[in-house]
Amino acid sequence: MELTALTIHDLQGLLQRREVTAGQVLRAFLKRIAQEEGKVQAYMAVTGREALTRAARLDRRLDKGEQVSPLAGVPLAIKDVICTQGVPTTCSSKILEGFIPPYDATVMRRLDQAGMVLLGKTNMDEFAMGSSTENSGYKITRNPWDVSRVPGGSSGGSGAAVAADLCAGALGSDTGGSIRQPAAFCGIVGLKPTYGRVSRYGLIAFASSLDQIGPMTKDVRDAAILLRVFAGHDPCDSTSVDMPVPDYTAQLGREITGLRIGIPDEYFIEGMDAEVETAVRGAISVLESLGAKAERISLPHTEYAVATYYLVATAEASSNLARYDGVKYGVRTGKARNLLEMYMKSRQNGFGAEVKRRIMLGTYGLSAGYYDAYYLKALKVRTLIRKDFEEAFKRCDVIVTPTAPTAAFGLGEKTDDPLTMYLSDIFTISANLAGIPGISLPCGFTQAGLPIGLQLLGKPFDEATLLQVGFAYEQATEWHRRKPPL
Which of 379, 413, 446 is the last residue of a domain? Predict the structure, then answer.
């Protein structure tokens, strides 16, 4: 039995029955990381020593027969944009090199209380700005299915780590598709919750009205388990919504007979890879065979989503990233003649090209004379996009689309063409603008052996139905059982 290949719920059963110890599970993952991390480059840091100490402590409690929390002994990886007390958190940016947070993010505190063992922090596009994890200030993560290709982004390190069995599950963050797109490229499950379902306290901000933390896992049940642990209201986050958190696993296994699924015309577009369209339409047929009723719908403002997103997100990034000035924390240049030059050189040397590009775009959109023409207009279009979904959900329970227009592309293929790179998120951006939940799960493979992602979008705070439909599809297929050829 290969412990690293098991799901979270499989490991839970073994640990609770004491068929394995937390130490055995952890050492299996550390051995796997030692063997394969050099090929994948998923981690920014591996916290092996601290993890072994925690696993030993959990084993002593389990040996005494103490009641332990649901994730006791389960090794997880955390995207390097989420604050971890005492563990470096850099957002994969040189400007935060060496930064060690003095506190835990709320999601970390809840996972810690549930007994999770932290394996390490995963690589990402710098400040979560990118779709390929090629924008990291430190290393390039590779796709475990084909190491000459990208794992997606910005949560590419988390996606690659889960796919390569370098952790049992991981956390990512999603601002415009950064959980779902790498999940699609890496052949795993990735869930973006409704905006406000999960606390953002301790999530280093890119675009505060769009960012959400979510699980990246080997199957749908694992996503339900993790979301149940860290979702819920948090007084430390004013955008966190005070609503009950259901037991997401309770709805798994229910039939989807009679469930209405909407197929938006705007998500099956010219230029989309034919293999992707074939796989997604095949998935729709599977859902219909399970009793779901499919119908065509329209989301007419979808064509404006990319432009709207890259005004709203960059404007918020321009504001949020103003705090990195070389004064309070992070990198400070030692070669400056005065305060202004210190600010400028610290930011010039600390930020990468993509982050600088987005700061400049956002600053321009917010500047005097352009605010009304660009940023304010983008907010109005954002409202129209949200209303499109409100109207669609009067006719259907779940919307089904591709997660990305192609499978994973080659390393370096799009780095010289930012606009083409931005279009990689064309099918995921709208959900963030509207604040609704979305999940990606594998629905097939290309002839080249690359995973294809199926996206399900749901009503606000109705993650349970997304998980129910995703689980029904998953149980009817075998795509999630395939492993990359590392």
Answer: 379
- Would you give the DSSP letter of residue 20? S
Instruction: Quote the CA–CA distance of 458 and 443 in Å, as a whole number.
Output: 18
Same domain, 235 and 339: no
Range of the domain at 234: 3-251
Query: Does the annotation count 346 as an active-site position?
Result: no
For this structure, is 178 an active site residue?
yes
Annotated catalytic residue within 131, 154, 199, 240: 154
Q: Which of 236, 251, 266 is a domain's end point? A: 251
Evaluate whether residue 58 is within a structural domain.
Answer: yes
Catalytic residue among 92, 132, 173, 178: 178
- The answer to whether 404 touches 427, Cβ cutoff 8 Å, is yes
Residue 103 sits in a domain whose CATH number is 3.90.1300.10
Q: What is the DSSP letter of 449?
A: S
Tens of pLDDT, residue by residue, the chain (486 residues):
799 999 999 999 999 899 999 999 999 999 999 999 999 999 999 999 999 999 999 999 888 888 778 899 999 999 999 999 999 999 999 999 999 999 999 999 999 999 999 999 999 999 999 999 999 999 999 999 999 999 999 999 999 999 999 999 999 999 999 999 999 999 999 999 999 999 999 999 999 999 999 999 999 999 999 999 999 999 999 999 999 999 999 999 999 999 999 999 999 988 899 999 999 999 999 999 999 999 999 999 999 999 999 999 999 999 999 999 988 888 888 888 999 999 999 999 999 999 999 999 999 999 988 898 999 999 999 999 999 999 999 999 999 999 999 999 999 999 888 878 888 899 999 999 999 999 999 999 999 999 999 999 999 999 999 999 999 999 999 999 999 998
Please tell me whether the overall predicted TM-score, pTM, comes out greater than 0.70 for this model: yes
Structural domain count, the chain = 2
Look up residue 423 and give its amino acid: L
Contact criterion met (CB below 8 Å) for 371 and 377 = no
| β-bridge pairing 169-174 and 117-122 | unpaired
Sign for the pseudo-dihedral over CA of 212, 213, 214, 217 = positive
In the numeric block, which tokens belong to residue 143? 């796709």
Query: Active site includes 155?
Result: no
